[in-house]
Design goal:
By secondary structure, the chain is of the alpha/beta class. It is built from 19 helices and 14 strands.
């Protein structure tokens, strides 16, 4: 075995993950997706419990804890450097509602956990072996509350089908290389590029592979190692993942990619009629993944889905609060791009929403009561705001009480983040108004 090889059950442990922020881990944003599909979302203004499995550097998790002092946050990660970094951020912010554990997923069910309202994992499903996925399912089955959510993101087939053999080649070159992790990653990429230059038939038949390799060369080696070079790395079809969670009573209810929940823009116009013929979730999601050559999914599963009546759905939408992340003038240059469409949300109604939110967060009902938006009913207003949220022009907002309580922790954490430079720089800041982080 070459020096510097990893010993975490096949998971990369010889270098920490890079500083990344993932907005999809925000429970309020996931709540928008759940509500848009007709289900009851988590009430994030009341106390709740949240678990992140494999939290990396802990950036997103610590931000959520700082911005929601009324909730309790738990995190598990294998690397001691990750736990130490997250604890350092939490200490700087002064938060006391964050509980971090350096353990393997094999030890998950041996811990005395509380019941959770949301269990989240970014990428983990792709990165770990089947026995660890089984450990995760046992935890979810044992500790997720009725009505609770499991957020699971993973590399997807068929989008990874062309790249998967090259990933195997890259992994083989990485395993036999010597040196530090960055040196081994660079050597592996260089050797695979040498194969590409020989013009093999496989590369000619799959031209997107060369584009993917070119993109990889621009990435941080530690990112590439954690994302693609774990021993048990595997992409999955939606059917396979959804079947696992359905087996423990958690059917699929939404996508954490907000735009993927909107059928009119989720597929190209010429495929809409075919998509409309699909009668089950499995049929729709599988077809959509094939139509779009989907490479990464963000699935939301719910224990005992609570479907809302039409009246209850309208009431829940009316009470949903939004905050602006853009100014009305920013909309001219902003675009919402999906596999099926590219939208410019710069009509008078879109600008009117952002103008109304300049004074601060408001509920959908309050926005509909303003003169400029009074012609809209609640469902139409929520639908428009949902698209604006997908484009990151607005975001689901916390109550005034939660935001006020979080302000001191958010300010402390942002002050600490401002001191981070270079590779330690954190590409997000905490917003007490939305109860989460936001890209800087």
């Amino acid at each position: 075995m070459a020096p510097g090889h990893d010993t975490g059950g096949g998971y990369v442990t010889s270098a920490p993950y890079v500083m990344r922020f993932h907005r999809a881990l925000n429970p309020r944003r996931l709540g928008l997706a759940v509500l848009a599909n007709g289900f009851a979302p988590l009430n994030c203004d009341a106390p709740y419990t949240y678990m992140e499995l494999g939290f990396g550097q802990g950036v997103s998790l610590v931000m959520l804890a700082a911005a929601n002092p009324h909730a309790q946050f738990y995190g598990v990660d294998l690397l001691p450097e990750h736990v130490e970094h997250a604890r350092g951020l939490a200490t700087a912010a002064g938060v006391t509602n964050l509980h971090l554990f350096q353990i393997s997923f094999a030890d998950l069910t041996a811990q005395d956990w509380p019941a959770f309202d949301l269990i989240a994992m970014h990428g983990v499903w792709t990165w770990v072996a089947a026995n660890y996925r089984a450990d995760i399912l046992r935890l979810v089955d044992a500790k997720l509350k009725p009505g609770g959510l499991a957020y699971v993101s993973y590399n997807t087939l068929p989008g990874w089908a062309a790249m998967e053999p090259v990933r195997e080649l890259l992994k083989a070159e990485y395993d036999r290389a010597n040196g530090t992790l960055p040196e081994r990653v660079k050597t592996a990429l260089m050797n695979v590029r040498a194969v590409e230059k020989a013009q093999p038939i496989y590369f000619r038949a799959n031209p997107t592979v060369s584009m993917r390799l070119e993109h990889m060369e621009k990435e941080n080696p530690a990112y590439l190692a954690h994302e693609y070079l774990n021993a048990a790395w595997a992409p999955f079809y939606f059917e396979d993942v959804s079947r696992e969670f359905e087996s423990i009573g958690l059917p699929y209810v939404a996508s954490g990619n907000l735009q993927d929940n909107v059928g009119d823009i989720a597929v190209k116009p010429e495929a809409k009629a075919l998509y409309a013929e699909m009668t089950t979730t499995l049929q729709r999601e599988t077809l959509k993944d094939v139509l779009n050559n989907k490479q990464f999914r963000r699935d939301v599963y719910m224990r005992g889905p609570r479907t809302l009546s039409d009246a209850a759905l309208t009431e829940a939408m009316a009470c949903t609060r939004f905050a602006a992340l853009m100014k009305p003038s920013d909309l001219a240059a902003a675009k919402l791009t999906t596999e099926g469409a590219t939208l410019t949300l710069n009509a008078p109604v879109h600008r009117a929403f952002l103008k109304a939110l300049e004074a601060g967060p408001r509920t959908v009902a309050e926005l509909c009561a303003t003169p400029a938006l009074s012609s809209l009913n609640v469902n139409a207003a929520f639908g428009t705001l949902f698209l604006l949220a997908a484009m990151s022009a607005v975001e689901a907002a916390a109550s005034d009480g939660v935001a006020t309580a979080a302000q001191v922790f958010a300010e402390r954490l942002n002050t600490e983040i401002d001191t981070r430079k270079g590779e330690g720089a954190i590409p997000a800041r905490v917003s007490a108004a939305i109860g989460a982080g936001v890209e800087a």
